[in-house]
C-alpha cells in the first residue's frame, strides 16, 4: 500500500511536497528547509523475531543495543539493501516512509521525536516528502516509544 492511500485510509491530513532528489534524511531536511530534527528517519533492523522499524530524527544515530533491548532481542542488526528491497518493494531503496505498519513491521520511535508538532518523512521516493502532525503519525503506526538514539 502506498503512503498516500494508507494515510487517507487512517483519516490523516498531510501535505505532500516535491523536492530535488535527496538520498539522505539530512538531505531531505535541506531540501525541505527545516531542521533535521523534524525529519523522521527509518532504520530497519533484523532480530530473531524478524524485522522492526526504528524511527529517529535525521541527525541521530541508532543505538543497536538499546533497540535490541526495547525489542526484547538479544541482538539486532541493520537490514541489508536486499532485505530492505524485499520488505518495502513499493519504495525506492532508502526512501521508505517511517511507518512500520505499512510493511508489516513493529515501529519503535525514539523519544526525542516527541518534542515537535509536525514531522517530515520520505514518501517512498527520493523526490517526494510528506508532512504530518506527529500525533497523527503516532496514531497511524502505534509506535513503542523509547530512548533508542545515541546521545
Kindly report how far apart the N and C termini lie: 34 Å
Total E-strand runs: 8
How are the strands ordered across the major sheet?
Answer: 4-2-3-5-8
Can you tell me the number of structural domains? 1
Helix % is 10-25%
* SS-derived structural category: alpha/beta
String of helices and strands: HEHEEHEHEEEHE
Major sheet, described briefly?
Answer: 5 strands, mixed
> What is the CATH third-level topology name?
YbaK protein
CATH class membership: Alpha Beta
Strand composition percent: 25-35%
- Under CATH, the homologous superfamily reads YbaK/aminoacyl-tRNA synthetase-associated domain
Count of discrete alpha- or pi-helical segments spanning 4 or more residues: 5
Instruction: Please give the CATH architecture.
Output: Alpha-Beta Complex
Mean pLDDT level:
93
Instruction: Flag low-confidence runs.
Output: none
- The rough form would be described as globular
Give me the Rg, rounded.
14 Å
Amino acid at each position: 500500500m502506498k503512503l498516500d492511500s494508507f494515510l487517507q485510509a487512517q483519516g490523516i491530513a498531510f501535505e505532500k511536497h516535491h523536492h530535488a532528489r535527496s538520498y539522505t534524511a539530512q538531505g531531505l531536511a535541506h531540501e525541505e528547509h527545516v531542521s533535521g530534527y523534524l525529519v523522521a528517519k527509518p532504520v530497519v533492523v533484523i532480530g530473531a523475531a524478524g524485522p522492526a522499524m526504528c524511527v529517529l530524527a535525521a541527525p541521530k544515530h541508532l543505538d543497536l543495543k538499546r533497540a535490541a533491548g526495547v525489542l526484547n532481542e538479544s541482538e539486532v542488526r541493520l537490514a541489508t539493501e536486499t532485505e530492505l528491497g524485499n520488505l518495502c518493494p513499493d519504495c525506492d531503496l532508502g526512501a521508505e516512509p517511517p511507518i512500520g505498519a505499512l510493511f508489516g513491521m513493529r515501529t519503535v520511535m525514539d523519544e526525542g521525536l516527541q518534542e515537535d508538532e509536525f514531522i517530515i518523512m520520505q514518501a517512498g521516493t527520493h523526490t517526494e516528502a510528506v508532512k504530518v502532525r506527529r500525533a497523527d503519525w503516532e496514531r497511524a503506526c502505534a509506535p513503542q516509544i523509547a530512548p533508542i538514539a545515541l546521545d
